[in-house]
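Quick one:
INPUT:
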C-alpha cells in the first residue's frame, strides 16, 4: 500500500509468510489424517467377503 514505511512493509510480508506457512502445515496434517483414515477403511474392507445374492 502507498504511504507504507519499509518497516511496515517488511512486517506485513513477514506476517503473510507466517500465515501461509501455518496453512501449509495445517493442510499437510489434514492430508495425512485423511490418507490414514482411507488406509484403515481399505484394510477393513479387504477382510470382508462380498455377498452376492443367488437369484
Amino acid at each position: 500500500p502507498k504511504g507504507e514505511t519499509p518497516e511496515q512493509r517488511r512486517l506485513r510480508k513477514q506476517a503473510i509468510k507466517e500465515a501461509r506457512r501455518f496453512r501449509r502445515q495445517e493442510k499437510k496434517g489434514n492430508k495425512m489424517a485423511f490418507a490414514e483414515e482411507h488406509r484403515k477403511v481399505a484394510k477393513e474392507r479387504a477382510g470382508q467377503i462380498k455377498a452376492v445374492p443367488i437369484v
